[in-house]
Design brief:
Order of helices and strands: HHHHHEEEEEEE
Number of strands: 7
Radius of gyration: 18 Å
Structural class: alpha+beta
Number of helices: 5
Strand content: 25-35%
Shape: elongated
């Protein structure tokens, strides 16, 4: 349920700034709202921020993160029309960035095209982990920059 609410709120964003703001609002709401799983486990109060306290997780620099996700991170250069090719699939990223290096990131069933840490386009995809190849790309969503 939380994921669907998150997806809906992000779909309303028209710019990268609005996208970041929606993300921060969601995190604040998520971390300060009672959760059914915590209620079931008898946590009092059942609020993630209270349960986790000062826990922050591990911090990684950009190089470490890139190496951890490198199995599904593909650098590509757009053509003069703003399109790229990945594993025999040719698709649109952003017309305003001809001949520009972008990163294609595959995670679960999502393919994201990114430039300078900004998501330009999203597609649904099927990524075959054994062959390390994208087998299908569909349902595009382009973000205004």
């Amino acid at each position: 349920m939380q994921r669907r609410l998150y997806d809906y709120q992000l779909s309303l964003a028209k710019t990268s700034v609005e996208l970041e703001q929606a993300h921060q609002v969601f995190l604040q709401l998520y971390n300060t709202t009672a959760h059914q799983g915590l209620l079931k486990d008898h946590f009092t109060p059942p609020i993630p921020l209270e349960v986790l306290g000062e826990a922050r997780g591990r911090m990684y620099n950009e190089d470490e993160l890139a190496s951890k996700f490198s199995h599904a991170l593909f650098p590509r250069t757009t053509n003069r029309y703003g399109c790229v090719t990945l594993h025999s699939y040719h698709f649109y990223v952003e017309r305003g960035l001809p001949q520009t290096r972008v990163w294609l990131w595959v995670y679960d069933e999502q393919l994201r095209a990114m430039f300078d840490q900004v998501v330009l386009a999203e597609y649904r995809c099927y990524y075959d982990r054994q062959t390390r190849q994208v087998r299908a790309i569909h349902d595009s969503r382009h973000i205004e920059i």
